[in-house]
Specification:
Strand order of the largest sheet: 3-2-1-4-5
CATH architecture of the largest domain: Alpha-Beta Complex
Number of domains: 3
Number of helices: 12
Low-confidence stretches: none
Shape: elongated
Strand content: 15-25%
Order of helices and strands: EHEHEHHEHEHEEEEEHEEHHHEEHH
Mean pLDDT: 93
Helix content: 25-40%
Radius of gyration: 25 Å
CATH superfamily of the largest domain: Argininosuccinate synthetase, chain A, domain 2
Largest sheet: 5 strands, parallel
Number of strands: 14
C-alpha cells in the first residue's frame, strides 16, 4: 500500500508490545492520522489492561479491548473441529483459525468509529498478512489496509528499539529473560517459531514448553474423562455442562497435565516457503480424537468417507485465509448437516502424552450388536449373501486376469 494513501483514521490490531507500539507511532507520523487500537482476548492468558495503559499514554482516545473467547470457540474452533480439520496431516490450525475473527472485529470497529483503514503487525513473509487482509476484504471490499512491515525500512528488533527510544515510546527496552521464540497463543494453542527452531534438526529445548509437562514427567496413572457431544460439539465434561470456552479451557488444563498435545512440524506456508514450528494444543488434540470416536458410531460410512475427502480442502482454505470465502461457507453447511446425529458420550484415557478412546455410546448409534457379533446373530445377517457380493465385485478382476493370462 502506498504511504501517500489518504487516511484519516486507522484501526490497529494492537498488543502493546514493541512491534505494535512502534506501528502506532509510525502510523501517526506517516499518515498524519488518528489511530484506534483493538486488542482481542482470545484466551492467550495474558493481562490485557497494560495494553490499554500504553495506548492511553500514547494519546489514543478510542481503545477497544474485547473478550472474544466464547465467540472464538463457539463460532470458529468448534465448527472447524466438526470437520476433523487438520493441515498437512498434523497441524490443528491454532493460529489460522483466530485470524478471521480478528479481521472481523477490525472491520466492525472501523465501521463503528468511522475509520477508513485497518492495520496489522504481520510481516511480509508470513501467512497472517494474507489471513487478515483476505478476511477484511471479504467483509468490506472498500476497506484500506496498511501493513507497515511491507512499507517501512525498519528491519529488526534493534532498529525498532532505536525508533522507540527516539520518540519516547513506552516499551520494555531490555530483553532480560525474554524468550528467543516468536509465540502466538489463544485458547486453542500456543505456537513457537524462530530462535533455535529455525534449524529443523535442533530439538526444541525442554524449557520452551509452557502449557504441558513432558510425557516423561506426566502422572503414572491414567486420567479418564467422559465427553458429551451434541450435534458434533462437546457440551459437558464428566456430566458437568460447560460453555464452548470452558470446555476448551478445561481440556487444555487436563491435557497439559498429562503431556498431551505437543507437536513439532515443518509446514508449507501459503506464501511459498517452508517453516518449522512447535505447537501445544492439548485441548484440541483431545477434541479431535473424541470427535472421530463419536462419529465412528453415528455417521453413515459414505458420509464419513466423504467428509474425510473434503477435509483437506477445508483445512487448506482455513490455513490460507479463506474462512470468509463462499466455498468454505458451502462446505460448512454440508459439514454441519452431517452432525445432526453426532450425539452421545466418549470416554477418553489420557496417559503420558497419549489419548486413548476407551468407550463410546450414543442414542443415535448405527452400531448394531446383533449384526456385528461373532456369536449367533439370530438371522440378522445371512453369511451366504456374501458369496454373491464377492463374486460381483470380483467380476472385473477375474475378467482382467483372464485377458492378461491369455
Amino acid at each position: 500500500m502506498n504511504a501517500k494513501m489518504n487516511v484519516d483514521k486507522v484501526v490497529l490490531a494492537y498488543s502493546g508490545g514493541l512491534d505494535t507500539s512502534v506501528i502506532l507511532t509510525w502510523l501517526q507520523e506517516t499518515y498524519d492520522c488518528e489511530v484506534v487500537t483493538f486488542t482481542a482476548d482470545l484466551g492467550q492468558g495474558e493481562e490485557l489492561e497494560p495494553a490499554r495503559a500504553k495506548a492511553e499514554a500514547m494519546g489514543v482516545s478510542e481503545i477497544y479491548i474485547d473478550d472474544l473467547r466464547e465467540e472464538f470457540v463457539r463460532d470458529f474452533v468448534f465448527p472447524m473441529f466438526r470437520a476433523n480439520t487438520i493441515y498437512e496431516g498434523e497441524y490443528l490450525l491454532g493460529t489460522s483459525i483466530a485470524r478471521p475473527l480478528i479481521a472481523k472485529r477490525l472491520v466492525e470497529i472501523a465501521a463503528e468509529t468511522g475509520a477508513d483503514a485497518i492495520s496489522h503487525g504481520a510481516t511480509g513473509k508470513g501467512n497472517d498478512q494474507v489471513r487478515f487482509e483476505l478476511g477484511a476484504y471479504a467483509l468490506n471490499p472498500d476497506i484500506k489496509v496498511i501493513a507497515p512491515w511491507r512499507e517501512w525500512d525498519l528491519g529488526g528488533r534493534e532498529t525498532l528499539l532505536a525508533y522507540a527510544a527516539e520518540r519516547d515510546i513506552p516499551i520494555d527496552m531490555t530483553r532480560g529473560n525474554k524468550s528467543p521464540f516468536s509465540t502466538d497463543a489463544n485458547l486453542l494453542h500456543i505456537s513457537y517459531e524462530g530462535g533455535p527452531l529455525e534449524n529443523p534438526w535442533t530439538e526444541p529445548p525442554a524449557e520452551m514448553w509452557r502449557w504441558s509437562v513432558s510425557p516423561e514427567a506426566a502422572p503414572n496413572e491414567g486420567t479418564y474423562l467422559e465427553l458429551s457431544f451434541e450435534r458434533g460439539d462437546i457440551v459437558a465434561i464428566d456430566g458437568v455442562a460447560m460453555t464452548p470456552a470452558q470446555v476448551l479451557t478445561e481440556l487444555n488444563r487436563v491435557g497439559g497435565a498429562n503431556g498431551v498435545g505437543r507437536l513439532d512440524i515443518v509446514e508449507n506456508r501459503f506464501v511459498g516457503m517452508k517453516s518449522r514450528g512447535a505447537y501445544e494444543t492439548p485441548g484440541g488434540a483431545i477434541i479431535m480424537r473424541a470427535h472421530r470416536a463419536i462419529e465412528s458410531i453415528t455417521l453413515d460410512r459414505a458420509v464419513a468417507h466423504l467428509k474425510d475427502e473434503l477435509m483437506p480442502r477445508y483445512a487448506e482454505l482455513i490455513y490460507n485465509g479463506f474462512w470468509w470465502s463462499p466455498e468454505r461457507e458451502m462446505l460448512q453447511v454440508a459439514i454441519d448437516h452431517s452432525q445432526e446425529h453426532v450425539n452421545g458420550d466418549v470416554r477418553v484415557k489420557l496417559y503420558k502424552g497419549n489419548i486413548e478412546i476407551v468407550g463410546r455410546r450414543s442414542p443415535d448409534s448405527l452400531f448394531d450388536e446383533r449384526i456385528a457379533t461373532f456369536e449367533e446373530d439370530d438371522g440378522a445377517y445371512d453369511q451366504a449373501d456374501a458369496e454373491g457380493f464377492i463374486k460381483l465385485n470380483a467380476l472385473r478382476l477375474r475378467t482382467l486376469a483372464s485377458k492378461r493370462n491369455g
